[in-house]
């Protein structure tokens, strides 16, 4: 059942898991994405990408560089919507506008899957802050938004 667009847009939030194919990846295979920030002032969404491939080149790179704290493992459960063990790469993020999400939803190209736990969100936030690959302006937004998590 397709929900009204307004309902979908009003429910975009931190910790929510979405499944879609991104033109920002080098593959058209749909991936899971987790919303990390909703920047209301500029209507931008910050998401991280998930992978379930244990041999994924990102995972090998992270381990080689000693950045294990930037790779978060999430076990599937009824709440998060994952169907298998999933890894979050905290070294990359994806920016989308609310309008881009609206268009994807209207074209039936995006699907809400679930929500990650507060514990996993904390791990992802800390991983992003530890990552040498995350730009400072994103780290600043994270620090401003998640002061309670970071204490």
Number of strands: 7
**Number of distinct helices:** 5
Structural class: alpha+beta
Helix content: 25-40%
Q: What is the CA-based Rg, rounded?
A: 15 Å
- In round numbers, the mean pLDDT is 90
Residues in β-strands, percent? 25-35%
Distance between the amino and carboxyl termini: 41 Å
Poorly predicted tracts of residues: none
Main sheet? Answer: 7 strands, antiparallel
Give the overall shape, derived from the CA principal axes.
Answer: globular
What is the chain-wise order of helices and strands? HEEEHEEEHEHH
Task: Characterise the protein shown here.
The N and C termini lie far apart (41 Å). The protein is globular and about 45 Å long. Strand 2 (31-39) and strand 3 (44-51) form a beta hairpin. Strands 1, 2, 3, 4, 5, 6 and 7 form a seven-stranded antiparallel beta sheet that branches. The chain contains five helices and seven strands. With 151 residues, the chain is an alpha+beta fold.
Protein traits:
7-stranded antiparallel β-sheet, single chain, globular, 151 residues, alpha+beta
Brief characterization of the structure:
30% of the residues lie in helices and 26% in strands. The protein has 5 helices and 7 strands.
